[in-house]
Amino acid sequence: MATLAQPAGPFALGTFSAPDGVPFPGLLSRDRVLDLGGALDWAPSGLRAVLERWEETLPVLHALADDDALDWRPLDGLRVHAPLEPRQIFQSGANYRQHVIDLEVAHRSPDDPRTVEEARAEIAAIMDRRAAEDLPYVFIGLPSTIAGPYDDVVLPSWAKKPDWELELAAVIARPAYRISADEALGYVAGYTIANDLTDRATVFRRDMPAIGTDWLRCKNAPGFTPLGPWIVPAESIADPGDLRVTLKLNGETMQDESTKDMLFGVARLVSYISQTSRLLPGDLVLTGSPAGNGIHWGRLLRDGDVMEGSITGLGVQRTRCVEETP
Length: 326
Fold this sequence. Notes:
Elements: E1 12-17, E2 24-29, E3 32-35, H1 36-39, H2 47-52, H3 54-65, E4 73-74, E5 79-81, E6 89-93, H4 97-106, H5 116-133, E7 137-141, E8 146-147, E9 153-155, E10 162-163, E11 166-172, H6 181-184, E12 188-195, E13 198-199, H7 215-219, E14 225-226, E15 232-233, E16 244-249, E17 252-258, H8 266-274, E18 284-286, H9 294-297, E19 306-311, E20 316-323
Parallel strand pairs: 6-18, 8-14, 9-20
Antiparallel strand pairs: 1-2, 1-5, 2-3, 3-4, 6-7, 10-13, 11-12, 11-18, 12-15, 16-17, 16-19, 19-20
Helix pairs in contact: 4-5
C-alpha cells in the first residue's frame, strides 16, 4: 500500500517490493521508485548498506533523482516495507514537557492537597529545570519490534492496555562515540516516523516494585514499532525541533504537538547516548512521544482500530490493529 503524502525535499529512501517480490532498497522521487541495488555500482543489499557509505553516496543519490532516463517504477503498486532493519534502537522516555505534566497530574495521589492548577504549575517548573540541568532518560528496544508503515499491528493476548506513542525517529549515518551536542546532528542521516507501542498494564513490575519499569515486557512484542514509510535526508528537514507530530485514531485526532515541546532535542539525545554506547549506521534514536496517548484519553487500542501517524515532511503511516489469534 502506498501513500500520496509526499516527503520533503527532492527524494527519500525506503524499502520496497513488487507484490510477491524480494524487498529492495529504493530511491523515492515524484511518486516513482528506483531500485538502488541496480542503480549504484556497488549494489547495496539493503538500505543500511547505503547509510554505511552515506557521505559518498548522498551526492550520487541527488544525481540519480534528477535522471529521468533511469528504470523508474511507479510507487503505486509497490509494497512499502519498514525502511530499514536497525541494529540498535534507543528510545527516549518522558521527553515531551506537556506529556509528562499530564501524566504526573493524572497519577497524583488521592491525598494530594494541591489543586490541578497548582500541581500543573509545580510540575511545569520541575520540567523546565530538568531541561536545563538534567540528563535525558533513554532505554533500549529490540529490532524485532520493527514493522512496516502499513502492516497490521497484532495486539498480544496478554497486553491488556495497548497504547500508541507516535515519535520522530532520527537515523544515524556514521559511527558516533562520545560526541558533543554541537556536532551530533552531523551524524544523523535523516528522519522517519515511529509508533512506539506500549502496553500500559506491564510498564511497572507489580511483583518487584523496587526494580521499577519493565521495558522488555511492555514495549517489545513483535511489530510494536511500525516504522516509516521513508527516511527523509536530514538536509531536507530545516529544523527537527519544529515539526508537527499528529496521530489519528479512526479519523479522530489524538496527538497533535510540535517537537518544540521536547525537553531534549535530537542533538542532545544523540550526544547523550554516545557518551555510553557506540551508535552505528542505521541505528534509530526515538525522541519520545507528545501528549495525547490513549491512557490520557481513557481509550486504549482494540481490534479493528486504525492509527494514522504523520510528521511534517516525513509522510504518513497507517496501521490497523488486530487481536492475536490463538
